[in-house]
């Protein structure tokens, strides 16, 4: 279906908004009055600019406080309306939105509202425009979609229809049964459809609407269900996003528009209106890539964690470090510098450039995963590789993290000649042979890591402050991961919010976070959590190898002792090593943290009995401890 976006949803000047909407692939826009008033362009200029950008102007809005008022007041309203209809005509738009009155002058009189809206529609017709009447959830007398529709139906005017707005309808928390009436509205009388989601919050509905709306799929409203009803009614007009959101108002328009359009594509797929390449859910974390300008500190830290440098890239300064099933690439190539500088710039503070730049996701179908990502507007990354290198499918996540879709050869071999599929031959015959990324690496002499063994448990990636919701939607829609509830934590210097996404068996878990301030180094960290069966042994081995664990205050352990029962000496061990403890309905979690390099630190975790979480309870203690170390 045609897609549209209200200019109020994007930041910047009107022309910046229009350019961003066009670049992101929208077909049309709703022009918001304030954007027009603030623009130096004439309505004719705006019309021409939109035409150049390939955008239709689907709606001009809003007109307020028009209907069900005493005659003298209505006469004044008609005078105002005449000016707006003239403007709409000059814009080349054909529909004007009228929202239900909030005026104390408005009377609770449907017949009067219908008669005056009909009179307004007569006037609109003279200018070749139509009126879409929308119930604001806080309208004085008209605040439900069916009430607005009854008035439109009673007016029975060809230039008067209704505008449905998912926020106003769903925010009232109505019974799903109340939505069934939507399908009974004749489709051609639904003149416009505005779509917005919102996080579930208990607050005044006007404040909620004006500050917290978000793109469909980012909040907790059933926008998909509502869309199905509207389609069942026969509506075939544009799907238009109308998002009032304080964060988007400040964020760059280009990326916001792209995320906005992605949300509409995913919504159409969910409502059965469009088919996209199916999601290919990743089945594991093949590798994590760190970029740094100096490999020494990272090598020392990895060495203390028991990783061995097992291979080196054939043509680039990239080392492969392995410990059990965990693989970390350390890249000191020219790509590292701009990344490191980019992060430093984003935060406004110069810092050690070590950062987590890429994730290799194990994929049963890397090409399919890349097609899915591309169809949802994820930037596909140039391969920037030597001709002899294995082809890699990669896309960029909203925060710039590169996601590689890979199929590591079954042997985990690090030599091209070993990269054979040693599975059942019948099985191998049906599957295309994919050269493994490991074929690009040459083994180097090393001593095998001893003792405990690791695999990647989860990755925790702090998002730029304005991209938290987008990141969650991206990881769910593009990668097919499931989202958990977002958790708010009191960081000693503000609020830290976290939301995890994972695959079904938990072999891929990513915790997306957002910190209180964009310039706060501690809250901009990224961490790699390594799972072990014995975190105490792993912590001791790390220390014995010269590693430094994050010290945790004694008060934390005194509190733990009061909350849980531990076996003799257990708590003392945790206290000594800085191991934190959590428990849920399924099992237990023990975890500790290494020192931080640039933006990156490691966490050692032991999950027992099917514990589902990430130790979020303990995050404030961890954040405070990291602030202290700084
Ligand atoms: O918040 C408002 O006033 C407002 C205006 C126009 C709309 O379409 C809407 O949904 C809300
Ligand atoms: Mg609206």
Residue share in helix? 25-40%
Distance between the termini: 52 Å
CATH superfamily of the largest domain: Divalent-metal-dependent TIM barrel enzymes
Mean pLDDT: 91
Shape: elongated
Name the CATH class of the largest domain: Alpha Beta
User: Architecture of the largest domain, CATH level 2?
Assistant: Alpha-Beta Barrel
Strand count, sense and closure of the main sheet? 9 strands, mixed
In DSSP terms (H or I, runs of 4 or more residues), the helix count works out at 20
Per the CATH scheme, the topology name of the largest domain is TIM Barrel
- Give unreliable regions as ranges: 411-433
Main structural class: alpha/beta
Bound small molecules, by name, code or SMILES, are: 3,4-dihydroxybenzoic acid, magnesium ion
Overall domain count: 3
Cofactor: a divalent metal cation
Family: Belongs to the bacterial two-domain DSD family.
Keywords: Isomerase, Lyase, Metal-binding, Pyruvate
Protein name: 3-dehydroshikimate dehydratase
Descriptive tags:
3-dehydroshikimate dehydratase; 33% helix; TIM Barrel; single chain; Xyl_isomerase-like_TIM-brl; alpha/beta; binds magnesium ion; binds 3,4-dihydroxybenzoic acid; pyruvate; 2,3-Dihydroxybiphenyl 1,2-Dioxygenase, domain 1; VOC_core; 9-stranded mixed β-sheet; 25 strands; 630 residues; lyase; 20 helices; 8-stranded parallel beta barrel
